[in-house]
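Recap for those who missed Tuesday's class. We walked through two folding examples back to back. For each one, the amino acid string is listed first and its predicted structure tokens come directly after. Nothing is annotated here on purpose, so try labeling regions yourself before you check the end of the notes.
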Amino acid sequence: MPRMLDVSEDVRAEIGDEEADRLLAGENAPGSYDCTSCRTQGDSEQERTSTVLFVGEETAVLAFAHATCIPSQVVKVAEEQLQGAVRSITGTEAQAAPTAPAPAPAGDQAVLGVTSGLVLIDNELHPALVVEPTAPIARPGSAGDGDEFLPLLMEQGFLPVGDVNQRPGPIAGWSVLLAMGQLHAILQPGTGGGSPVAWWQAHQPLQVTEGWRAAANKSHTVLVFAAPVGSIGQQPREDLLREALEKAAANGRLVAAAMPLAGT
């Protein structure tokens, strides 16, 4: 039976017209599936379904997702990251647990630590990520010792946070990639209007809690807060994370932006 599949041009180019046509005809596509984004069941015979192709150096994995959760696309990831995602697509983690760091967007040896948590704004829980470097971030090409992390982000469209109770505004071209039920990357616009590139990428796909994922799939938006080194720390509980965010905001050391869930 034909499937209600969305196959993007990028996915078709990777898998070929013949395989894409077989999928659309229902030959190689499952009827029911676990959505690669929200992890709940979907049915490609009854609802629009996206084909999502994860591509590593040697491995490619075709997955399926509700079209309302994530668009059909090709997601390029490191080979070990793809293998890790295949091996580990379930699990639990503290709601405000620090994730593995990744290279920072500057010319020194700092790395970005990312913490996931839920932030209460206007009596509604919002999924949030908090980004904090492990060392001061210098402006690329600069020989100075100053910390330019916040100015660099504000030049990209992040805005200062004066009150954590106010929802941050959107930022153009950025997104948060949640796939296979796990956090993969924060994407920023590519140069010259090209495809988005990873500003931060998990060394291995990272678990988020069911509550965080449910809130993200409800709003399709993730609030991303960023602060200079030493401003937030690795807080073990969400109430402590909230206190640290409020303190950083009061000291003028917090910027934020609202980003759509998943990248295109």
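Example two. Treat it independently of the first, because the proteins are unrelated.
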Amino acid sequence: MTTFLAIIVLVLVAIAIWQMSKIFELSQAHTDNSEVANDKDNKLNGYLMFGFLAAFYIFMIYGVFKWGPLVLGTPASEHGDDYDFLMTMSMVLIFFVQFLTQGLLFFFAYKYKGQKGKKALFYADNDKLEMIWTIIPVITLAGLILYGLFTWTTIMDVNSEDEDPMVIELYAQQFNWKARYAGQDNTLGEANVRLIDIASSNILGINEADPNADDDVIATELHLPVGKKVLFKMRSQDVIHSAYMPHFRAQMNCVPGMITQFSFTPTVTTEEMRADGGIVEKVERINDIRAEKRANGEDADPYEFDYLLLCNKICGQSHYNMQMKIIVESEEDFNAWMKEQKTFAASMGKDDSSNGEMAQSEVFISDDEASIIGVN
């Protein structure tokens, strides 16, 4: 019985509220209850459009000054200036078109706002306008694409008669890089992932019967001589990786089952880049952040600039840590480093008297690497 009475009370309260709302509507009989925007509403919305446009422009300009210093800065390869010019030209065009079109968009929203007695004019088509907004982008994009193709062809031209590029293989696997130098003959030995044998230290699947492989050198740190063109041959053991060397403006996918390539000439040594004004400023900013972390008890060692080879494909859970240090040095320092490295023949126990001094550069294989390729 109590429940029934409670329901009756709730129903009566609802009826009372409904009746009160009707009385309120009657009290507003002489006001404008139309849900259609009037001239005042349209004018207000037009001004708000200009306000939004101003905020958009302010944020765009703020972003350029705020995050502009985060760009890479001085290119460290011969083709870097051409690459940066193409990027700068593209960004200038993008910002110009965005500035112009956004301004027109919001200006038209104000100029052609709804007004009482004003009727919109409908155009079925306008051949002249369509021609303009089709031809201009076509010409602009065609120019960018042609210049980009020309730049790409120049970068990838490794058949110049006056050049003999040094050949290096970049071998990618989850989640590390290996570099294989072609040795004195500048010819890489044949390799196949089916030939990988951890027990015999053949971690890259190099064909031991190929004589071109004897003087190959495997390293976990990439050394490059400044001013010498380098042709990178790239392989992947497991998934698609991407060899990304940002300061050299170089990137190429590493695809399982095929060999891709990219070439460039390094022009700035590691020591010279460390003295670059932009790099010095960035290093100081990073070290300030790390100093604050150390003050809070966090583990953050001081940072020193190094070129890096990164993976630019999300290749798994440790993708973020897939990197290899790159050292650009003089030809004398590079040759001295090479003399200290052990050749493939020497690492396989073969006689290798052609390599001079051999240092302790055995390639270490971790348990994780062994498990990746199915070797226990």
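Answers for example two:
The chain has nine helices and ten strands.
Confidence is low (pLDDT under 50) at residues 353-376.
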